[in-house]
Each structure stands twice: as C-alpha cells, then as structure tokens.
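B., you asked whether I could sanity-check this one before it goes into the benchmark set. Here's the sequence:
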Amino acid sequence: MQLLIVEDNVSDAELTVRQLQAEGIECTWTRVATEDAFRDALLSTPDVIISDCTLPYFDGISAFSIAVAETPEIPFVFVSGTLGDERAREALKHGAAGYIAKGNRKHLAQTIRSALERGPSPHRRASDRSLLHAGAEAGTGAAQHLLARRRVLDDTLQQRESPAMTSIMLRAAPSPAALLVIEAQLTRDRFAKLLPLANLEIDTARGADEALERLADRVHALMFTDNIALIRGARELPSGEATHIVFVSAGGESLQAEAIRAGANDCVPSDTCGEHFWTHVTSARRIADFAASLQLALRYNGVLSTIDELTSAGRRHYFEEQFPREVERAARLGRPLAILMADIDRFKRINDRHGHQIGDQVLKEFCRRISGGLRIGRDWIARFGGDEFAVVLPDTSASEACAVAGRLCESIRSEAFDSREISITASFGVCALDHVSGSNLAERMVSAADAALYESKRRGRNRVTAGCITDTEERFSSV
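And here's what the prediction gave me:
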C-alpha cells in the first residue's frame, strides 16, 4: 500500500507507519508538509492519504479540500491532536474516511481497511449531492446551505492573525458550557459534582494542553481553573477572549492577585462552601444564560442576514461578503470559478399586468428552478436586487459554466409559471476563469458577467452570452 502522509513531524509520521505495520499493513510512504509538495505527491495516486490538521505552512482542511476536488476516489483520514470532535464530525460529513486522535492510533488500521473496502464516500464521488448542511436549528434549508458554504470557505481560508473581539463574537458566541480544569483532584471532583446542580453543562479537561485545544475548538462561556499559566494561555487564544475565567485558589490574596493579572475575571477559594459558593455559582449561571441567549440571537441574525425572505436566495450583502472569498479560495487551490448573472425578461410587464403578488410568485418559482439546476453544497445563488440574481459556480470551468447557463435558460422557458400559464424567459451573462489570478478580480468578474447579461438583452433576450475580463475592451460570445 502506498501512503501519502501530510505531517510536519517526522517522528509522528514514523509512529503512524509503525502502527500500521504492527497491524499487518505493509506500506511505502511519502511525507509532505507544504501545499506544493502535496499537489505533486497526488500525481503518484497514493492508496490512502493520512493528514495532520495543523502544520506550520499548510493545514489538513486545505489538503482535504484539494483532495476532494482532484482525487475524490482516494480515502482521506485525519490523524490529529488538534482537529477536535466537532470539526472531525464536519470532516466526516464532508466525505473524510475517518478521524483518529494521535494518542489513539490503535484504530487506524481498521479505519483504513474499512475505507478501502467500501470505496469512495458517496458525498465525495458525487459532488452535486454533497450535503454540507448546518445544524437543523440554523434555519431554513437555504440558510443551512449558504451558511455551510461559508464554513467551507472558513476552513479553506483559515485566518492566521488573531481577530478582534467583535469578530470572535460574530463568528461564534460562547456556548452555555463551563470548562473545568482543576489539577487538585479533590477540588476537581468537588466542583464537578456541585456545578451541574446549577444547571451548567460541564466539559472537563485533564491538563492545560487539552484545555487549550477545547477552547480553540469551542468557545466556552466559563472556565474554572487553578492553573495561572493556563489562564495566560487562554487569553492569548482568540476564543479565550470570550470566556469568563474563574480562578479556583488554594492560596492567599497574592496568588489571587496574580491570577487577576493573568486574565482571570473572578476568584473563588477551593474550599468555599455554603452561601459564598452559591453566590459565585449563581453569577456563573447568569453568564452561561447570557451566552445561550447571545448564541441564539446571533444564529437567528445570521440566518436573517444570509437569506432573502421572498426567494430564499442569499442576500446581496451575503454575496458581497462571500464572493471575494470564493475568488480567494479558487486562487489558493488553483481551481476554476464561474459566475452567472441572470434576470427575468420584461419582468416589469408581469407586475403591471398581473400585480405584484403574482410577480412575487414568479420570482419564487424562478429562483426555485435555478436552484434545482445547481449542485447542492457547492453552487449558490444570491438575489442582487429586483429580478436580478447572481449564481456562483465554484470549481467550474468556462465551458461547464456556459453549459450550466444554457440548461438553466431552457428550464425557465420550458414550462409556464403560475396557474395563469405565464410564459417567462430569462437572460444570462457568464464570466468564468479556468485560472484565477489578478487584482480586484471579484469586482471585475461581476462587472464582466453583468455586461454579458446586458449584451444578451441587447441581442434579443432569452439567451446566454459569455463575457471575458480584459484590460482594454469588453468581448462577448453567444452560447
């Protein structure tokens, strides 16, 4: 078996290979730690890809995105100490063959055998059926799809700098959970027993390293700890800025003062009891309740700011935020990208003749037909305004984009709208790049697609026109 291992630590790669050999899997292996080396190694068509999540100059999520696009038939297994349960579930949902913690490699061989036996994940083999849904509570199906696409971009375009506090809160409100990291066993057991009585969800970590991983993976509302070094480390994490930290002290005032200087918000003696203890717990409960309310409000606002209420397409604001990130992703991964601009021919006549209520129904049906011709989990649509829509087609070449636009144009004119048998046609403009590079590219692609759309209108409507980006003049071609 030929393995491709994405890992910056040679010793960790060797441990992985030795574990597989001990389980009876004979293998040759190649280790890479950069994106260029990974792309080159994919050309050798390995049998299995094994990847760490975090590397100094690359990351496992980006490697997974490249593998999904270029070699979907090769099983991809994460062996990582930092991916975390939630992100592991997301990776598995997106088509990864498995996730193994570095400290628990004993299940790796069976995971690889099972992946090879069952073949490629259906989510990866058929990208048009790749379901990247958010949680059921996130809102409508359209909002789930668009928010899921935002998470794909987040994973591909991970920011290295620490974001500001406002960015943290907008991305993820603290969950109503308390992280318990107390080294003194008797104190830890006591707090673990008492805190749930305050209706707090308790997440326990055995040491500072594990605690920092938990905080990086999930923004906790509260943390109880007796480790001052951990407090400093938590405050250095972007997610740690949003956590209320309670220092559990067995020492005097000087130790508590040091904890406050390190970033603790509150101090409580380790042997506190009775009314004094419950005063601290009640305050903690209020903080957790506030975090829960904030989380719910942000989720609701996220849905409202994402989708257009009438058509369930993305809002223009969502498009303006996310399309430049799609361009950046395509450039980073070396993938093609296309955008279609579309609107309904002579839509004003429909409103004037049949009324705005019928016009709204036509808009809904128009958007439904467009969405029905797109790949779930990859392509997405946004309402630009009125009856004009933008359709984004990631990983789509120019020839493929024109074919998609042609099918969508046919689906609009092929069947009458509404019970009144209203005949509708639509015009489309296409801008697609097989190689994404250049400055101000998102704005230029939108402008080229929009110009191509109006060229379709000028040529008689009910047609597709492809435009291209040039520095001197606009060029169009009929499709």
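One thing to flag: Residues 122-139, 160-171 have pLDDT under 50 and may be disordered. Otherwise nothing jumped out at me.
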